[in-house]
Amino acid sequence: MAKDEAQAAKRIAQLRQEIKEHDRRYYEEAAPTISDREYDRLYKELVDLEAKFPDLVTPDSPTQRVGGKPLQAFAQIQHRAPMLSLDNTYSEDEVANFYKRITRLLPDEEIPVVIEPKVDGVAVSVMYENGRLKYAATRGDGLVGDDITQNIKTIRSVPQQLRGSAPKVFEVRGEAYLDKNGFKKLNKEREAAGLPLFANPRNAAAGSLKHLDPKIAAQRPLGMVFYGTGAVEGVDVDLHSKIFPLFKKLGLPTHENWWLADSVEKVLDAIRELDRIRHDFPYETDGAVIKVDALAQRERLGFTAKSPRWAIAYKYAAERVETKLLDIIVQVGRTGILTPVAMLEPVVVSGSTVSRATLHNEDEIKRKDIRIGDTVVIEKAGEVIPAVVEVVKSKRPRNAKPFDFLKHIHGKCPVCGGEVRRDPQFVAWRCENLQCPAQATRRLEFFAARGALDIESVGGIVADKLVERGLVREPLDLFELKVEQLGKLNLGTEENPRIFGEKNATKAIQAIERARTFPLSRWLYALAIPDVGKTTATDLARFHQTIEEVASSKLLRDVLAYHETKGDKEATKEIAERLIKSGFAQPSKSKIDKQGGIVTEVGPVVAKSVLDFFGSSAGKKMLQRMKQLGVRPKSEKVSAKKMAELPLAGKTFVLTGTLPSMTREEASAKIEALGGHVSGSVSKKTDYVLAGAEAGSKLEKAKELGVPIIDEPTFRKMV
Q: Measured on CA atoms in the order 337, 343, 344, 349, is the torsion positive or negative?
């Protein structure tokens, strides 16, 4: 891998992790920690890097899907038509480019677009059948959302029966919001009751809709604005602009202000006009949405993996104010990363008082030369925790000194006092102590994820509360939980309890019990061993009978010894022969390697990482506890002879596009189970590219290199 590509891969990995964490906070917890503008900056950087290095694009990248999985405390509903999110921009020039782009895609056609307010609320889908409200769901991951039917029914403006002659099937999309006056009143009541205040109307609306007790939602002044449709039967709507009068006819609340435009100038005029009047709306708005009016034109313009090509959201500039930075504290995140936070002299921004701002990381502090005592400019876009934009140098006190991050924390984790190290991949300091309380939730979520031990009912807010209530300190504590304990778990606050419930608890305990004998590869991945991903975990499981055998692996010791004895030809040869005989290595086919070397299933970095992990005191205690808990991972060991006989032995596959009847994860598992390898990029060493619908640059690369391309039916015949 070239140096530039290697650096890009590191930055892409960092961006994906950051974006996924922000998605989780935004969609699952309704508690974002960065502004929309900052999020979009991170997202755009990722999009640009993936465009420059298409071989680094992976199916699980945030650019390839809509963020946010459903909360497990609710039943789930599959949307009949996907709820895709829109691309965002803060630039009028980019809005102009959007309109020019769609006119290039549909040359010689008039393309009217609708401009409408972007309500700052919670995206909701409501299904009506024969005019009757059947169910309501959150956006979730765009395909599946949380069932919030009972809470939506408490919103008075949402009809339970449509007026007049209603369509047979009418799935409507909208934004649930808490109106401005109602928000102020609600916070006054909470303050009088000694309860924590809501940060902004959007968070309050999200919290209301995600409350398990509909009585709480009924007490909140929630409203709804419907702006589009999903699956529809029994009505023919060919223009988006016809939806607004139709909604009014059926009794559905919708936009009062919207514009039609057929030129860049008219689009920009509408955006500016909306900005002039939006502050008088009863709900918060943070931008304008521009959509192609004709549904037939939309269909021809199509979609990217994440969003439609026929729409874009324009965000208005965030409010900026000056205040004094009183102190800097350091918090420890779920992944162990140390994050600096600015403590501010309280200041009113966008109607609410703020006293904290994110500083992101040590490099950000140095780059902006932020010092304690400075007057700083803060930005509060999207009504979330603000960010420090810049320092007003002309107001800097004479005694202000540069901030020394490491000295400030005395070289130790501020939570557990453990060792910290600079992590170059994430441009941040990280706590090295895996037992640090601040990291407990993150480890638990990873352990229970679908790709690991598939105990998803204890992810998200459930994981947070299990740790917060002291029921789980480390992932293996799950195996000592009882239904009674889990059933009583409060997912809310003492004032507004949300009980997990016995039914959910029973399902979770059943999933935990199933995990005791899950395949060894799943366990090796779930334990979050440094440098061990899914593919590596699968490779290790093929060559080891038990987890104890992995912990003291002779094969891994041989891999290390082989690389340590390169100067001793006899010793090297002997080790190489042993590894080849076991099937854990193959003779090198590289033209560069003139010494008759070998290629091992895993390299020395992974070998050392695994042996060090299990050789540590924490690793030994973990193995001992697994034994005490009766955890016996299922063996997947395959003999060298049998491995060679597997139908896909030694074959490397790359997957691209959407397969008709199986997910990429399922296809990857099938390939690996039959001896093959799955790679993220196409090269001359790739044996097959398995391509589905909407295949991207990997397909083009395969054609360019002459790599065989197969579809799902061909693949099924092979396996």
A: positive
